[in-house]
Amino acid sequence: MPRLRMAVIGVGHLGKEHARILASLPDVELVGVADVNAEQAHAVARRHGTQAFSDYWPLLNLVDAACVVVPTTYHFAVASEFLRRGLPVLVEKPLALDVEQAATLVELSQRHRASLQVGHIERFNPAFEDLLSRSLQPKFVACERLGVFTGRSTDIGVVLDLMIHDLDLLLALVRSPVAEVQAVGLSVFGRHEDVGQAWLRFHSGCVATVSVSRASCVPARSMQVWGPEGYVRVDFSKRKLTLMQPSEEVRRHGLDPRRLDPASQARLKDELFTRHLHLAELDRNHGDQLTRELQHFVQCVRTGETPRVSGVDGRDAVALAHRVLDGMRTHRWDGRADGPAGPTQLPAPLGRLFAPEEGQAAA
To answer: Whole domain around residue 227: which residue ranges?
Structure first.
């Protein structure tokens, strides 16, 4: 079987990793990389023994498929040209800047029968894959995704940059339409929202909260899921699961400390997570997610199967993200119709939160 001829468009922080992995796959020929930064394109090309381009247009006639890893603002322009020629693409998340662009990419993919995969890489996190395999009806979910400032993805805000990961995961996990969205966000760096909180209610009755920040001192990526079967915490960074479920006795009779005799009450603290609630800690830290995502894309291109994260999935995540953004823009900080609203219009500060010497002392 001939090797699949592929290219990477955009070889910055993440794109260069796409190029590295594709160049290592035995059934792929990395025929070129393209980037507006010619020096970066040539450096990556030399590293992997391929050609460098300052524009992606020549590659349209040289490849069987491509990875689009340019800034979000340019996803639509680049991906649409490949799809119009019937060439499959993996587009990094988010699929597009807005719902109209995302829907058009899906339509182009379907019309030209070209595979469209979206780079929601957490779907390939082995801890999340394990969660999806378990018998759990999610009824309350709390997501937290906090990142330190990197200076990347400044063309978009934190909702399309980080929160969209968890919005996509929630849609895959809950599998129910979202009935209601409330959200609040604020800007730290001036142009877009950098911190946000969203509250989602699904038609299934599930409620989810999503907290994000790209101005955090400490990074965190976790999801907590409660259902009638028990509780699961996913640590996306460490790829670990914590599972908790009631014992059969507690399932049948419940656990009411008031009904216990004094001796049993005294033992409850020590026995809670052994006798009454069973715990399991699972390490799923195996396999590189980006490699598995790219291998899956190659397989889908060869076989014609629908990608795990399809264009429709990417479009739906973008649509939900914009519902969150709409909620943030209309949030009134003081409850007045004529008052400050949205991430960049906070009320005037009352003063300093702490004196400079307090911060120095803490440091």
So the answer is: 123-283
In whole angstroms, what is the distance from residue 197 CA to residue 163 CA? 9
Q: How many CB atoms lie within 10 A of CB 94?
A: 30
| Whether residue 212 is found in the same domain as residue 90 | no
Q: In sequence order, what are the beta bridge partners of 32?
A: 7, 51
CATH code where residue 227 lies:
3.30.360.10
347 falls within a domain: no
Instruction: Output 333-342 pairs: Cβ under 8 A, ≥24 positions apart.
Output: 342/185
* Cβ–Cβ < 8 Å for 207, 139: yes
**Overall size of the chain counted in residues:** 363
Based on the domain organization, do 18 and 134 belong to the same domain? no
What CA–CA distance (Å, rounded) separates 2 from 264? 69
pTM score: 0.93
Residue 213 sits at φ, ψ, to 5 deg, of -160, 140
What total of structural domains would you count in the chain?
A: 2
Task: Give the tens place of pLDDT for each residue, 150-179.
Answer: 888 788 999 999 999 999 999 999 999 999
pLDDT, one tens digit per residue, over 42-69 is 999 999 999 999 999 999 999 999 999 9
Task: Please check whether residue 351 lies inside any domain of the structure.
Answer: no
Give the whole-angstrom CA distance, residue 270 versus residue 248: 18
Percent composition of the chain: helix, strand, coil (DSSP 3-state, to 5): 40, 25, 35
* Nearest-angstrom CA–CA distance, 133 and 131: 5
DSSP 335: S
Residues 223/143, Cβ–Cβ less than 8 Å: yes
Identify whether residues 80 and 136 lie together within a single domain.
Answer: no
Residues 243 and 133 in one domain: yes
CB 96 within 8 A of CB 76: yes
| CA dist., res. 142 & res. 30, Å (int) | 40
Listed range (89-103, 110-124, 162-176, 244-258) with the worst mean pLDDT:
244-258
* Residues 339, 354: Cα–Cα separation, whole Å: 26
The radius of gyration of the chain from alpha carbons, rounded to an integer in Å, stands at 24
pLDDT surpasses 80 at 299: yes
